[in-house]
Specification:
By secondary structure, this protein is of the alpha+beta class. It is built from 1 helix and 8 strands, in the order αββββββββ.
Length: about 130
């Protein structure tokens, strides 16, 4: 009988703990960044051509999204981004420019660091620069 009583008390404590954990998880609201696309292929481009692509994203989480840093894998890739906090269900952009004065194929990555639960996010661009005819 004593064992049954102890098991009963333990099961109540366990159930209460699980319910408290669920309630805590449901009240914490965090941002989440969702990009329409995470890669872009410029294809074949002439040397010296202006190359830029705008990656669009939406804050699909429950709190303001703040992009803290955007870095590229190479100095030939220059990112700019929405600096203001992005409210939930609102959108922002990351614009990536590539210096097309270098000949040949390229494949570069851009890393997005934010306060989102799915941070970091890695974007990529690729293409092939040919000599201008």
């Amino acid at each position: 009988m004593k064992t049954i009583g102890i098991l009963f008390v333990l099961s109540i404590l366990l159930t209460t703990g699980i319910q408290a954990q669920k309630a805590t998880n449901q009240t914490v609201k965090v941002p989440e960044i969702t990009f329409k696309v995470t890669e872009h292929n410029f294809g074949t481009i002439n040397q010296g051509t202006e190359t830029a692509f705008t990656f669009e994203y939406k804050n699909t989480g429950g709190a303001d999204l703040i992009i803290q840093n955007v870095s590229s894998s190479c100095g030939c890739t220059i990112p700019s981004w929405t600096k203001a906090p992005v409210k939930k269900k609102k959108s922002g952009t990351v614009v990536v420019r590539y210096d097309s004065n270098r000949l040949g194929a390229f494949n570069k990555t851009i890393t997005i660091i934010s306060n989102a639960k799915n941070s970091p996010v890695v974007l990529s661009i690729k293409g092939d620069v040919i000599k201008k005819e």
